[in-house]
Design a protein that fits this description.
Elements: H1 6-46, H2 49-75, H3 89-118, H4 127-153, H5 157-184, H6 190-217, H7 225-233, E1 240-249, E2 252-261, H8 267-284, E3 288-297
Parallel strand pairs: 2-3
Antiparallel strand pairs: 1-2
Helix pairs in contact: 1-2, 1-4, 2-3, 2-5, 3-5, 3-6, 4-5, 5-6
């Protein structure tokens, strides 16, 4: 019976994971655009800045899903000569793009809110509009929970980032419902004021997503060097461990480190120790896809 390589197993698992992430994104795309169309239609008909802005925000949600699907198509490609570490960072680039799209939506929210306040526009509030907002709020809550669940399950930075984006829609919808109530009670300027408040919240969401994506793209350390050293030193034959480095995405981490062994060991014996270190770290950290061990002879202390 032929033994299956652990590297092949991990590659197949990664391919399956990327297919699942793309399926989730496609389902979320449909839900987001249903919500966006409903909000935009009723917001424009009622001349409500906050509802229309909320619709634009939902439309951007759908656009970010399209961006994510394209990025995942690239990220799922196996490593090649030009990208020996794979294409996983394209997923982080998509997350960065989502943050940028939120920023664009934030500017639009601010423009519409100020226009509403300066020109003292009075939106028309109806029971149907309120019902549509409640309906879209429920959809957004379901979408957020589903997307966060699968983001954690597949350790996908893209799904988690998009879940945060969709969660921002939940708070936006709540704020818009409050503004609808205040307008109905005789406070028309609440429409513009609530839209301004939403803009600040969306800006905070964008900052969090961009910070996460930048952390991945700038090779922020993924593992605690001290813990990695402790696991390594537990391997028989390792006398010291230093220069531990890690990088990559949450679900695909690359590690390299230096170990010192008995200088009397043969090359084959030293490589066996290195292989044991690799196996130990793969067992301790399932997210690790590659370990590079530099073997050196121990020096007199």
């Amino acid at each position: 019976m032929e033994a299956t390589s652990p590297i092949v197993d991990r590659s197949a698992a990664l391919q399956e994971r990327n297919r699942n992430v793309r399926f989730v994104l496609l389902a979320i795309l449909v839900a987001n655009w249903v919500v966006a169309v409903a909000k935009l239609v009723f917001g424009l008909l009622a001349h409500s800045a906050s509802v229309t802005a909320d619709g634009l925000h939902s439309f951007i949600d759908g656009g970010s899903n399209v961006l994510g699907l394209v990025a995942m198509g690239v990220a799922s490609q196996p490593a090649d000569a030009d990208h020996p570490y794979g294409h996983g960072k394209f997923e982080a680039l998509a997350s960065l793009g989502i943050g940028a799209m939120i920023g664009v939506g934030m500017l639009e929210l601010g423009r519409m809110a100020l226009d509403s306040l300066v020109h003292d526009k009075h939106p028309t509030v109806t029971v149907t509009m309120a019902a549509v907002m409640v309906f879209t709020l429920v959809i957004n809550l379901v979408v957020t929970r589903v997307e966060r669940h699968y983001g954690e399950k597949y350790k996908s930075a893209l799904l988690l980032a998009d879940a945060k984006h969709t969660l921002s829609d939940v708070f936006v919808s709540l704020a818009v419902l409050v503004s609808i109530g205040l307008v109905a009670l005789g406070f028309p300027r609440a429409d513009g004021l609530i839209a301004l408040g939403v803009m600040v919240f969306v800006a905070w969401v964008a900052y969090g997503i961009v910070r996460q994506a930048v952390g991945i793209l700038s090779d922020t350390a993924r593992l605690d060097p001290l813990q990695v050293s402790q696991h390594t030193l537990a391997v028989s034959g390792v006398r010291s461990c230093r220069d531990v480095r890690s990088r990559g995405m949450e679900e695909s981490v690359y590690v390299d480190l230096k170990i010192e062994v008995d200088p009397q060991l043969t090359t084959a014996q030293a490589h066996e120790v290195a292989d044991q270190v690799e196996e130990t770290l793969h067992g301790a950290y399932p997210q690790v896809v590659d370990v590079v061990v530099h073997v050196e002879p121990s020096r007199p202390r």
